[in-house]
Amino acid sequence: MLIKFTITRKWQNRLVACVLLMAAVSCIGNASAQVPSNVVYATTWGWNSGTLSPATSPGAGAVTAPYSTPSNLNTGLVSIAGSTYLYLQFPGAIPANTVVHIDMSVPTGLAVGQSVTIGFNTGTITTNSNKGSVSGTSGTTLSASLISLGGGSKTNYTIVTPATGTYNGVYIQLTVGIGVSVTIPVYDAYYLPKPSTQCPVPYDVVTSTTPGINVDLLAGAPPISNPYNAIDGNNATYADFNTSVLSVGGGLQLTELLNTPARSGDSISIVINDPGGQLLNLNLLSGQLLTLNLLSGITLSALDAAGNTVQSFDLGNTPLTIRLLSGATDRYIITVPVTSGAFSQIQVATSNLVSASLLNNGDLHVYEMGVIVPAPTLASANANTQYAYVGDAPVTLTASSNAANDAVVWTAGSNSTISSVSENGSSITVPTTSAGTYVYYAQSSRNGCTSTSATDMDSVYILDTPTVNTLPDGKTGTPYSQTLSITNAPTGATYTYSLPDGYVLPDGLELDPNTGTISGTPTSSTNGAVDIPIIVSGTINGTTLPTITVDASITIDPADALPITLSSFNAILDAQKDAVLTWNTVSEINNKQFDIQHATDGYNFSNIGEVAGSGTTSTPHTYRFIDHNPGAVAFYRLACIGFDGTISYSNIVSISGGKTGNFLIKPNPATGYIDLENISNIASVKIYNTAGALVLTSGNSIRINITGLASGLYYLSVIQTDGTVSTRKFTKL
Predict the structure, then answer these.
(1) Which pLDDT tens digit goes with each residue over 572-589?
(2) What are the structural domains of the chain?
(3) What separation, in Å, do the N-terminal and C-terminal C-alpha atoms of the chain show?
(4) What pTM does this model have?
């Protein structure tokens, strides 16, 4: 049977004897101090003087509020040895494994053979009935050293009802020898009922000490004052650990009793003060997993019903989840999971290793202690945050049960709606009818109780359906560049773009998947608007947005009339199988030059040379250009460049069977430099991109620096001193 006690008078030097007693003994604060309002007091009393005929009635003080006048269990001056009993009964049976408190004063100096025993009984007694008959347990006898420790002061002893048997009261047995007279004032007997909820919640606390009380520093203050503040549900009140009373080897313990065992996987949670401002210096404004040496000497333990350790945590050497209490600046919530088994008690213990400077001049404040049932695990791909567009299919949120297989319960936050709940409750669907941010909470329900469960929050962002900007018209032969812009895009979102299978942009245009830029030089008109479905994929803060297809359209108009009037444009092979291009103009208007463009497929043209135009003239002119490396099949067109930058294109001509150049570009693909091999008499080198734009010009060097070019395909034209132009392709990585 577990016995603990509280000394209520000012602490005396004999308190140090507490450390020499059995580990079950505890020395805690004033028994007349804070007691919860829901206690159950003994209401009926009886006594039995046994063979001690001088004994007189103890009186009803122990069952009469406000319990300030005791029942005096006495022996009188006896001539024979024997025992006298005080019976205190409760209104009904005391639940098994319940801590019962008895406030009484046991005098010091009991002689050998004199003792005080506490136990449980059952039966019916008659108030003030001498020699009443009840049956009960064998009880536990207080040792002489324990009695001496009390020193006659009002002391709170606690005993625990057995796990089996039915008891409705307690008894105090006083045994004395011949020729002595002893009186024990008994003030009350009470217990705190266990809450009916099946959640593991605290209902009582017990405090204790281990060797090392520093009597000189005690100065009348109990080592732990107001212990019930640790379970009152109020984060503004606290149990105060006066660690300054500890000397070498000493320790204080505050033990919380749970109404029902917590399960393996449940977490212990305590709210403590900020030791000396050290935690605040760490800026712990949200939950973090940390190891804090400044908490060394503080131990948090899970105990079974018998007080055996299930799992213990040295807070200075254990990774902790710690966060600032909401609305507070100096109180922190510390949470650790218990994984070694079920537990029925929670204990906070300090030792003399606790630095007074770290604990606010020696005081540790414990505001609350409790159990947190693990939350369910969100099973969505984007746990905690999901996105959908207005009108999408309802969003499904799913959570799996915790390790204890507790049921899942979903609740909706303010302005949030749940459309349906799955049969087992683990999944819900939420509507996508209106744009906004909606919050949902998943909790674990243990036997219908969610009050002690941790919570997982899932936020659902319903976004307005995106659209893209209207694309301006393009023109055949005129460079085009327009970037798609997403309307209704959430802040911080990034997008990629693609086309559905089977869809292509107008000839000469390309879509950059990363920027959404449509660019190039259209080669033909579209005869009206062309609808282009754009697949938009995106992310925001690392979370994938739903993929959606938006509608765009583009119109490519025919090119403006040529600034020249061509009477002919021809391509033929000469005897050396070079391609000889000739063209004749009847008139020219503002014509700066002709860019000669070459393609092997009739679509992807690149510049291979240029010929100066004649400005504005009505006189016919003849022009000629030789491609010394036409290739087996070659297509040619003229890009007529005006002084105002306008571009217009001629018809396309072609040859087949032409000469293939034999100079080489190495390496190919390349990253930094390329070398030209098997060619000499270089006058200049020009490099064009796939849109035909000149991007790099070099002199007569056979080594060319291409580090400034973007990755992609390029055309390199070598112009030799005799005017020969040879072109080859290469890739820049």
Answers:
(1) 998 888 899 999 999 988
(2) 5-191 (2.60.120), 202-372 (2.60.120.260), 377-460 (2.60.40), 467-557 (2.60.40.10), 564-656 (2.60.40.10), 664-732 (2.60.40.1930)
(3) 82
(4) 0.57
